[in-house]
Amino acid sequence: MSDAIGIASTGLTLHRKWLDAVSDNLANVNTVTATTEDAFRAQYVIAQAGEGDSGAYVAGTALGNAEGRLTFEPDHPLADAEGYVRYPEIDLAAQMGQLIMAQRGYQANAAVVDRAKVMYESGLQIGK
């Protein structure tokens, strides 16, 4: 059972980092920069399976496109001479889907830890 807790803890860590990346992307979906600057770059977590039954790990992060998308907003204080500003290239719907998947994965791994705890407590009660 301790293997299950160890594997679930790697899943908890992976999904927490995934949630952090998605929440950062969502928080910056409307971040505006001047056209002379890079747009906010979305973060994507790269997951990797561990050796044997050791769980899953964060292998690294990938960054999105720094080009972003140009939007015509001539009244914006950061607009260039042509009236354009730069927004990040982040798909809000895709990020919300990622958020739901990461949240459900986190909940599933937390449930495994909780079930293991209940089994340990039951084993202690039997031994009394």
Describe what this molecule looks like in 3D.
The protein is an alpha+beta fold and 128 residues long. It has one domain (2-127). 48% of the residues lie in helices and 18% in strands. The protein contains two helices and four strands. The strands form two sheets. Strands 1-2 form a two-stranded antiparallel sheet. Strands 3-4 form a two-stranded antiparallel ribbon. A hairpin with a 6-residue loop joins strand 1 (43-49) and strand 2 (56-63). The longest helix has 36 residues, at 92-127. The two termini are 20 Å apart.
**Major β-sheet profile:** 2 strands, antiparallel
Mean pLDDT: 92
| Oligomeric organization of the protein chains | single chain
Succession of helices and strands: HEEEEH
Give the terminus-to-terminus CA distance: 20 Å
Can you give the helix content as a percent range?
40-55%
Major sheet strand order: 1-2
Name the poorly predicted regions: none
What is the overall silhouette?
elongated
Computed structural class: alpha+beta
| Number of helical elements | 2
Q: Find the count of extended strands (DSSP E, 2+ residues).
A: 4
Radius of gyration: 21 Å
Residue share in β-strands: 15-25%
